[in-house]
Fold:
Amino acid sequence: MKKIANLYLTFTFVLLYVPIFYLIFYSFNKGGDMNGFKGITLDNYQALFADSRLMSILLQTFVLAFLSALIATAIGTFGAIYIHERRQKWQNAFLSVNNVLMVSPDVMIGASFLILFTTLKFQLGMLSVLLSHIAFSIPIVVLMVLPRLKEMNQDMVNAAYDLGASYFQMLKEVMLPYLTPGIIAGYFMAFTYSLDDFAVTFFLTGNGFTTLSVEIYSRARHGISLEINALSTIVFFFSILLVIGYYYISKEKEDKHA
Structure:
């Protein structure tokens, strides 16, 4: 049984990572396309950094992901605390509402936001995309923070009140420090979701603003350039750094509260 499980895991990881490493491999191809490897070169990376439009879109995408994740994390954290402090029947009701965006198709969410903003005559652009990314990131943060809240020993909260702490002092000194690993996890998840979202963003980008996923889609329709391979390689390794950073930050926080 253990051998079957190992084979299954190996097959799964191969299926997931071989296409990525294939893309990375061809980002160094001298041939200019993916029809055959003709030697190693860094020309594709030089072309990438020389493409001012693509660099500007890359910056826009990361700024958008940073802002949306930051705001969604703040709202989602306090939303999770609010849900946790309600009675069980209200918790279930709020969680059901929270999970609607998690299970709804991205196309439906994007179309809904497009109809809303069009009805309100709200100009499509960075702000419309930012608001939509915050909206679909909040449920993710709530689901990351809430389990941490359920694990928290209520005696810690009661002890803070017994010592004369106000509600806000208890939040600052007891609850939020304890929730930090969950908050960090929620932020990184929200950041990642925003970074690679396509469907919702596609509906809401206006003139003068676009994101990496939408730009890659537009360019891919005219044929994949190895410049895109180079860009995808950089983003992939940046994602690995994020995962490593998240692991060490979370481990450090867990050790402090152990």
User: Anything to note?
Assistant: The longest helix spans residues 52-84. The chain has a mean pLDDT of 84. The two ends are 35 Å apart (CA to CA). DSSP finds eleven helices and no strands in the chain.
